[in-house]
Design brief:
Blueprint lengths: L4 E6 L9 H13 L3 E3 L6 H5 L5 E5 L4 H10 L3 E5 L8 E8 L4 E8 L3 E2 L7 E2 L3 H6 E5 L2 E4 L1 H16 L2 H10 L4 H8 L4 H11 L5 H12 L4 H14 L8 H20 L6 E3 L4 E6 L6 H12 L5 E5 L10 H4 L2 H7 L5 H11 L6 H26 L3 E5 L16 H6 L3 H15 L6 E6 L2 H10 L9 H8 L12 E5 L4 H15 L1
Parallel strand pairs: 1-9, 3-6, 12-14, 12-15, 13-14, 15-16
Antiparallel strand pairs: 2-3, 4-5, 4-11, 5-6, 7-8, 9-10
Length: about 500
């Protein structure tokens, strides 16, 4: 039996400085007494430790509870894929590194599922071999080089005997030679022989050396394919699926990948504790659109995220035809523009609203409800929604219901009163968001930004910006956490703060 041992820390040519969130996880896991190691593509372990690549962590099955405690203590959140097949014994945890704002993806493996690229259909008995003899780099336990070489050779041979993986190998050319050279440099072949005899006696040492020779000499693909079939035959008892089932599942996985690429989708996950609606509110030119785009870019690396603009909802079938008459109405009634009416209401405390203004407000409420109801359903099915603007609970505040009780009571026209009440009821039907980020900025700074902004369509006038910043009623959300963020500060520092707030709310 090979004794368990911990060798001194090793480093590459340049020192590796792991992200703080990764270092904290390693410390927690060691404190809990969990046995684990990083077992895939350790040639580029520096990329994994700095959050550029995913972490692939093999954890002793008996220590899974301890490792989960370490993950939860460091605010790692469990996620699941929505575009690929479930793999038993493999779990995904995400975390935000506060200092860098980088999203970390930790794949936690309890079993060494490996082999073919698409469905990992081989459950090879490598867990003990990998965990019994480890070394460390920057605090991360790694398997012995000999154990890594065995997995690399076996996995490579299996892939050469699989049609879809063979095509990927042909397309990739010599992409594996760098890893092979790294793993064989200074290797102890006597230890390789001993590990094979103990953990994988189905593959004799001569056959293994033959595979190494073919991989190292860049031999003809036909030779590798023939030898790969011998490997598959000897290891057939470790297959997770029968031949027909494996072919069917692999074909479906390939078709799903092709479809996702065709429609420009990516492999995304959802958090196990559900999705969220994150609302960005604030007057004109506070940076809502910019921050929404940054949040999507950050979270969208791993999670299913959608952004929407509740201030300008798309037309529904109910409002589509009436909305076509709006440009004509603006020309025929220039004094009835929405901005002018709202400004008059603020400046002169006016309670008189034209019928066309009320109708437009009802149409806007209808479209917003349709958009936000759809968003709420998606969020409750796991998706993260980032909304630019959101109606609040307070009537009269920006982007919400317009007509307060005293205005409705003062209105003499039954038709107008009915439409005003309808607008209120529509907004009452909208579910609240899960987190509100209230963005603030000085009026003069907002005017300056508005003049410099490069958005599609005409810029809003300075008067309009002043109007939005002088609204009498400020948004109120009774059942939703609201965090105020000043966008006057340095943008990068502000985004780090926002990421911390958002991650804590997910």
């Amino acid at each position: 039996m090979i004794a368990t041992q911990q060798k001194p820390d090793e480093t590459f040519a340049t020192d590796i400085e792991p992200l703080g969130k990764i270092s904290a996880l390693l410390e927690q896991a060691h404190r809990q007494g969990a046995r684990f190691c990083h077992w895939k593509t350790n040639l580029d372990i520096d990329k994994a430790l700095t959050g550029i690549d995913d972490l692939d962590l093999l954890v002793s099955e008996s220590d899974a509870g301890k490792f989960e405690i370490a993950l939860l203590n460091e605010q790692y959140k469990e996620a699941e894929s929505i575009t690929s097949r479930f793999q038993p014994g493999i779990f995904h945890f995400l975390a935000n590194d506060d200092a860098s704002g980088r999203l970390i993806n930790a794949h936690v493996h309890l079993h060494t599922l490996t082999g073919d690229h698409f469905i990992k259909s081989w459950a090879l008995p490598f867990e003990k071999m990998l965990l019994d003899d480890t070394r460390k780099i920057a605090g991360m336990p790694l398997p012995s080089r000999e154990a890594e070489l065995i997995i690399y050779v076996v996995r490579s041979m299996i892939k050469h005997a699989s049609l879809f993986d063979f095509l990927l190998i042909v397309k990739g050319g010599k992409s594996g030679s760098r890893e092979y050279d790294h793993l064989t440099d200074g290797i102890d072949m006597a230890r390789v022989r001993a590990l094979l005899q103990r953990h994988l006696p189905e593959i004799d040492f001569d056959l293994f050396q033959r595979a190494m020779t073919l991989l190292g000499d860049n031999a003809a693909l036909s030779q590798k394919v023939r030898l790969g079939r011998r490997f598959k035959k000897r290891l057939r008892k470790f297959r997770r699926y029968g031949a027909i089932t494996q072919t069917t599942i692999t074909t479906m996985a390939v078709l799903r990948m092709a479809w996702n690429r065709l429609v420009h989708r990516h492999k995304h996950m959802t958090l196990r504790n559900g999705g969220r609606i994150i609302a960005l509110i604030g007057p004109q030119a506070t940076g809502k659109s910019t921050i929404a785009a940054e949040l999507k870019k950050w979270l969208g690396v791993e999670l299913a995220v959608t952004t929407l603009h509740a201030g300008k909802p798309p037309r529904t079938w109910v409002t589509l035809l009436p909305s076509l008459a709006i440009p004509l109405a603006r020309k025929l009634m220039p004094g009835k523009a929405t901005v002018k009416i709202e400004k008059d209401a603020i400046d002169n405390n006016s309670r008189k609203f034209p019928l066309i203004f009320i109708i437009r407000k009802v149409m806007l409420a209808w479209d917003r409800r349709a958009l936000l109801q759809k968003a709420w359903r998606r969020a409750r099915n796991g998706k993260i929604i980032v909304s630019d603007r959101y109606p609040s609970d307070l009537v009269g505040a920006i982007d919400g219901a317009t007509f307060r009780d005293e205005v409705i009571e003062a209105e003499r026209s039954p038709l107008k009163r009915a439409l005003m009440k309808l607008e209120r009821r529509i907004y009452d039907d909208i579910c609240p968001p899960d987190l509100v980020l209230e963005l603030t900025v000085s009026t003069e700074k907002a005017i300056e930004r508005n003049l410099k902004r490069n958005k599609k369509g005409p810029k809003q006038t300075t008067d309009y910006v002043r109007l939005r910043h002088s609204m009498k009623y400020k948004p109120v959300f009774h059942d939703t956490p609201v965090v105020k963020i000043s966008t006057d500060e340095d943008f990068d520092e502000m985004m780090l703060k926002i990421k911390q707030i958002v991650w804590a709310a997910l």
